[in-house]
Batch of 2 targets.
Target 1
Amino acid sequence: RSLDGQSVEYTPMLTDQPLARIHYLVRALQEAPRNPDVAALEASIASLARRWEDDCKQALMQSYGESVGLSLTNSFAQAFSSVYRDDFPGAAAADDAHVLSTLAPLAGMAVRLYRPLNGSAGQTRLKIYNTAKVALSDSLPVLERMGARVLDEQPYKVTPSDGPSLWIHDLGLQLPQKTVFSSIKARFEALFLQVWRNEVDSDDLNQLVLVTELDARSISVLRAYTRYFKQIGFAFSQSYIESTLRKNAEITQQVAALFDVRFNPAFADDRQQAQQQLSQRIDALLSAVASLEEDHVLRQFYQGILATVRTNVWQTTVSGGFKPYLSFKFDPRRMPGIPEPKPMFEIWVYSPRFEAVHLRNGKVARGGIRWSDRCEDFRTEILGLVKAQHVKNTVIVPVGSKGGFVLKTAPNPADRDAFLAEGIACYKLFLSGMLDLTDNLVHGDVVAPVNVVRHDPDDPYLVVAADKGTASFSDIANSVSADYGFWLGDAFASGGSVGYDHKKMGITARGAWESAKRHFRALGVNTQTTPFTVVGIGDMSGDVFGNGMLLSEHIRLVAAFDHRHILIDPTPETAVSFAERKRLFALPRSSWDDYAKALISDGGGVYPRSAKSIKLSAAAQQVLGIEVA
């Protein structure tokens, strides 16, 4: 081609030397070119004569030095399959070999977004490097929720000489036309890895990485607000919110910038002036939004950030990385859409593992932390509880408070140890999220949290107590307080080994039982001498219910249920039933499923709450007053 030839003849010449000579005779189509580019032709021939492994070795030596280059050559020069060698030159393999060498032995992954040198305009590909094969059904949803369309995929198995097999997955992506590759490359790669490691949720908010300059952390902040808005009953769905933020990318960018200016401790300019300028810019952009619904969504974020008074977004762990959860302190009176009654303070903690809220009606307030199972509306549950707590606390501390959390990625509750371990871990992170934002007292002086910009007065008082699901967690809470050096020490959480143990002493149950006895006396029944039937809500592991069901030996518990099981015992033997309840009360983390089935009367049983229906026996129907057609 270079010599405009029509045919080639060649003669190989071999000797006893390690080199060979091949003589080529090219017959021109018309006439030989007068000024051929001999240097380019020689370079091309030299390249064709080189082995793929030689190119790989040379690139490794040039890029990483002799020592590292030789080590990588020994491991990877023969590691790549023939399919890979057909698709990539040896020089490209050098970069892949280096990335593969950095993977952790068991759970390592790395990614590289790139544009092929010989690819068409706008062609984008993603290489996924992993210690195990990655199923396309796992990676594809993540990428699509990041705004990328997956066009093709080619997996390559790599077998180093000194270790287990590794994998490269090369995916062809279609990104939006206006995507600026240099702007999104690093942020796209980091976001994918964080989603894969379950450090960031996978939803359509991740598409903001392509249409804004936001990174995974900033997108997570917006996601935290989105999840909070759901809990206060915001009118629009998450999918509509995601679409609105994406369609109005410039406003989204400015709202995120407002959050940064308001709370980034490294911001060195006039914070107040910068906020005013951003607010004016956002107001101007909002006035141009045609849709009333989209305007409502965007203003909710705008006003929500202005209603935020503290956040831990810029706090780091001992190792220097960001904390695995985000916490925000709100002024509920400024937050649009919050249902009445509005507490004085509210803390929202968000994580891919859990979500939590703490409502406080005053600067000095007390109340428990509930492990809730109402994922969709647990704030509504906590708001109802804090109203009752507010009334009860009038005789002990000025006002009430209440907190609660839900697990989002919990193990199967049937695995009690794993389920409890996840609950305790998230409980500790919830308390950490609150203490991240709470002032401390050191030698009588108020000390603000590190890397927290405060937009409210000093606020060093925070205590918690036991509640449903956390009755035995007081020592755990106080250990978190100790880790933070919090001024209240082991008074942070009431109860536990250094305080009054609510469950062991049965304080709440005993008080409630006196009330029950009084009501029964009005009916002419002595609960301590006369058998009577009971249908209960709770289980024997609970503080109040568990103690309450042991305060009379004459209770005939015919039915009870908690969030896991339903117990039906139509005609229990009073003494036998009491003894079995006592056994369950002493059994750590018991449930109704632990009730000895042989002790349940005919027609009864223990049933999962998840069951679609339960076929009731005639005895059960009679004792429960149920008529089945």
Note: The chain has 20 helices and 19 strands.
Target 2
Amino acid sequence: MKDEAAMLGCENGVLLYKGGSFTKIASPDADYGRVGNSYVTDSSPIAVTDYKDDRDAEGVNLHRVGLLDSAAGTFSVVDMPSGAEYTWRGIKRDGENNAWVLGTDGALHKLDPSSGSFTDSVPVIAAWQPPAKWQDAHPALQISGSTAWVTEPATNSVHKVDLTNGEKTSKTYSVTPNEVAFAKHTHADGSKHHDEEHEHEHTAEASH
């Protein structure tokens, strides 16, 4: 995060490390408000987190998103848009510090961390059900700059989305995509690839 702040998720809040010391910031749900994963950028003081508020809930689906403001020392939660849930594989940040959440309604939902409001949505895939086990293949999201990649295991597809205009291109594979990650592409002569779009298309294919 900005200003070299760091955080650790807990079952009832977060531990914020800043200025050489730790501060415990409680979840809005005092009894149980678990943070398992955080999504940060180098230029924003706000960490976006997943958030589970039911200790006994089965499955991996979540319906609220956490916002830790390391500058203000506050932690708040935001409800997902009506009819949409998500899993930990479905939150990422773009090049302008916005968060995007891949909902079970099949849309990418844009979250402004500063205002704590969902401001836009982009339909990408069909509606889906979260799995009972987190290891099972289910839709996942990666973002670089203003380009998103969304996996759709039900159709063995990967979708590339321009977040500035919603334009989508898709490709179907003979295997089921599961988790997805970025990797640098280097030519045999050792030179780096400078075509970002082409480089990342290779990345999406190699992740299966």
Note: Residues 2-206 form a domain with the Methylamine Dehydrogenase; Chain H fold (CATH 2.130.10.10).
